[in-house]
């Protein structure tokens, strides 16, 4: 794949008092200087957060949009020139540490138009991270020590798509209604076989067909592959009603990843997210006590989307030749992560559980033999 190099447009935020670089202060509307403590108020954008037409955007996207671009960046603070990671559009100068934000359109055609700013700082995220580690009883002790000492959490804005659409689904299936019939059965009562009448459940199946409709709003799709998709999904919910218009100031001091999942691929994931809800709608529409869905076909209309950034605190490290990642929702503090299992601890737990069960059984048998436990004597002729 060919690599394109060009000089980027970058946005640095020097302190008005000392010239050091300002960075966004979590949970506020301010930039703060880490050198002298000076704070700079962010003038919030009044641009509306709009939804873009999905099909119109697809038609206007150029074929073969670049997915690997090498940026030649010149730092305004120290004049060093270096290549910027093609998967990021916010980072820092490796020579002087100046915070740099590169225009997103120079990486991907579709730019982020909204974001959720960081709400909790690294200390609070680290506290949640350590508490999460303490709960991993079956993780190796060396992992906990290694993970705590390995490296600090990194603040990263992660790309997401949101999709809105209306759905119309036609289906064919069966409705099951439970009814009861009398059935004579042979049972043993007081040692004798006798015949009794019992009511037994049966199901009457009826062919059905119909249609259901539903509107979906802000179906959230992870727009990268840097983290396991299931792990990223577990960080929900996100307070998307608090989305702010995209501004470079919110990225200062943090990394920001560009999307790797393309717009149409993202909508395929969105359909997968919508599918269980649509099936539940079909089951409710069929009614009855049980339902069978033989086939269904869904049409999607009025599809629109947004490209947004969501804040994560991330720690990644290698342990015994395997990479493990831990992520924190930088709005709520929710923690998710990979974890290995300690075979020794699991084996010990199994042995202890078996030993405990054996002790209980032994004590019970000894107590029963010595009359320490209350027992109920049932006459033989009661069986």
Radius of gyration: 30 Å
What distance separates the N and C termini?
81 Å
Instruction: Please give the share of residues in helix.
Output: 10-25%
Number of helices: 6
Strand content: 35-45%
Main beta sheet strand tally, sense and closure: 12 strands, mixed
Overall mean pLDDT score?
79
Q: What overall form do the CA principal axes indicate?
A: flat
Overview of this structure, please?
The protein has helices at residues 54-60, 122-134, 141-150, 229-233, 263-286, 343-370; strands at 4-7, 10-11, 22-24, 30-33, 39-41, 52-53, 69-74, 81-84, 88-92, 99-102, 114-115, 154-189, 192-222, 244-245, 255-257, 290-319, 322-329, 335-337. With 383 residues, the chain is of the alpha+beta class. It folds into three domains: 1-43 and 66-107, no CATH class; 110-170 and 212-340, no CATH class; 344-382. The radius of gyration is 30 Å and the shape is flat.
């Amino acid at each position: 794949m060919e690599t394109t190099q060009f000089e980027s447009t970058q946005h640095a935020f020097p302190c008005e008092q000392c010239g050091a670089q300002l960075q966004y202060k979590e949970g506020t509307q301010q930039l703060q200087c880490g050198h002298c403590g000076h704070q700079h108020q962010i003038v919030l954008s009044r641009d509306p957060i709009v939804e873009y037409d999905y099909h119109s955007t697809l038609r206007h996207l150029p074929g073969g949009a670049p997915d690997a671009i090498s940026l030649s960046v010149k730092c305004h603070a120290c004049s060093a020139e270096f290549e910027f990671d093609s998967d990021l559009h916010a980072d820092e100068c490796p020579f002087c540490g100046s915070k740099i934000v590169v225009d997103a359109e120079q990486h991907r055609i579709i730019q982020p138009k909204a974001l959720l700013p960081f709400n909790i700082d690294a200390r609070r995220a680290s506290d949640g991270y350590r508490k999460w580690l303490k709960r991993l009883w079956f993780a190796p002790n060396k992992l906990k020590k290694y993970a705590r000492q390995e490296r600090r959490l990194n603040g990263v804005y992660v790309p997401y798509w949101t999709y809105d659409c209306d759905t119309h689904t036609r289906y064919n299936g069966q409705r099951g209604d439970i009814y009861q019939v009398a059935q004579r059965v042979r049972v043993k009562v007081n040692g004798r076989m006798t015949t009794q009448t019992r009511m037994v459940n049966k199901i009457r199946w009826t062919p059905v067909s119909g249609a259901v409709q539903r509107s979906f709003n802000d179906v959230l799709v992870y727009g990268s592959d840097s983290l396991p998709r299931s792990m990223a999904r577990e960080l929900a919910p996100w307070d998307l009603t608090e989305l702010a218009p995209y501004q470079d100031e919110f990225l200062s001091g943090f990394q920001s990843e560009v999307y790797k999942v393309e717009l149409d691929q993202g909508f395929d994931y969105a359909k997968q997210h919508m599918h269980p809800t649509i099936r539940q709608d079909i089951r409710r529409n069929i009614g009855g006590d049980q339902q069978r869905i033989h086939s269904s076909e869904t049409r999607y209309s009025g599809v629109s989307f947004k490209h947004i950034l969501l804040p994560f605190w991330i720690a990644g490290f290698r342990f015994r030749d395997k990479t493990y990642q831990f992520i924190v929702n930088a709005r709520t503090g929710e923690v998710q992560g990979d974890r290995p299992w300690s075979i020794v601890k699991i084996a010990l737990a199994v042995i202890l559980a078996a030993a405990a069960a054996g002790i209980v059984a032994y004590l019970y048998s000894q107590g029963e033999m010595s009359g320490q436990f209350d027992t109920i004597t049932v006459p033989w002729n009661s069986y």
